[in-house]
Amino acid sequence: MTEFYQDTPLRIADYEFSSRLLVGTGKYRDFDETGDAIAASGAEVVTFAVRRTNLGQSASEPNLLDTISPDRYTLLPNTAGCHDAKEAVRTCRLARELLDGHRLVKLEVLADDSTLYPNVVETLKAAETLVKEGFDVMVYTNDDPIVALELERLGCCAVMPLGSLIGSGHGIQNPFNLQLIIERASVPVLVDAGIGTASEAARAMELGCDAVLMNSAIAHASHPVLMASAMRRAVLAGREAFLAGRMPRRSKAEPSSPLAGRITR
Asked: Which sign does the torsion angle of CA 151, 152, 155, 157 carry?
């Protein structure tokens, strides 16, 4: 009997994960729906905006950690809403303080509130500072392969180019640049932003991405828990298709059954 291929774990910094789908916590109807969707996704890494999330700072508000237990999930605090390096660095320091020395962070420095496109100059500044301070930095960036290499050179443990604008659901707009990043990077490459449905998540994995991070595609679905389950399967299918190696594209048709040895009159 042919054995199924056994995939290797996703390795980010000193962490290992069996799931290659990372999810966020925003935009859900309530914490119950958040917890159900994340459980259905099979994700092991959960990201949240430090500046918009109660982790116990306010005793009168629901605490995210009551829904997303650090005993079950690896937390990935992010700097969503930050527009310069100083603000992003300060936010990561706050996360480390709130989470008892937690080092793994998602760096996100935005250029403006209209496009939510990354401010590359400020991202590079923040990344350099955070790495020097001992953080394990996963970084949201544009799909420029030169910028991705520079972020890796600075010491980021994963680069996360956008597929398209955050929350747009337009999928992967520039697969050629994404492949250039994948081919050159020595750290994990994750598509972060723009995925809208399961086929787009599978496409990212088929291109060779190590993982996919998403929030809106699940939270904004008509049935978030069902979509979370679909995304879990899509990421797995895309990963297996990448490992299997797709058939070559041909300019002409080729019969599925060989012509040699066929029965003729």
From this structure: positive
Query: 159 φ, ψ to 5°?
Result: -110, 140
SS3 content of the chain, % helix, strand, coil (to 5): 35, 15, 45
Could you identify the residue written with the tokens 């199924």? 4
Residue 86 in tokens = 């100083």
CA pair distance 99, 140, nearest whole angstrom: 21
Query: Pseudo-torsion of CA 22, 23, 24, 25, nearest 10°?
Result: -130
Q: Which of 106, 125, 132, 252 is catalytic?
A: 106
What are 118's strand-pairing partners?
Answer: 110
Report the chain's mean pLDDT, rounded to a whole number: 91
Contact status, residue 147 vs residue 176, Cβ threshold 8 Å = no
Decide: 21 and 3 in contact? Cβ < 8 Å: no
Q: Which residue's structure tokens are 């905006």?
A: 49
Residue 56 CB coordination number (10 Å): 12
106 an active-site residue?
A: yes
Query: Would you say the pTM of this structure is higher than 0.85?
Result: yes
Over the stretch 156-172, which tens digit does the pLDDT of each residue have?
Answer: 999 999 998 888 889 99
Measured CA to CA in angstroms, residue 198 lies from 5, 24, 42, 169, 219 at distances of: 22, 16, 14, 11, 13
Q: What angle do CA 103, 107, 109 make, to 5 degrees?
A: 150
Whole-angstrom Cα distance, residue 122 to residue 107? 11
The residue among 190, 143, 194, 192 whose CA lies nearest residue 164 is 194
Each residue of 115-146: pLDDT tens digit? 889 999 999 999 999 999 999 999 999 999 99
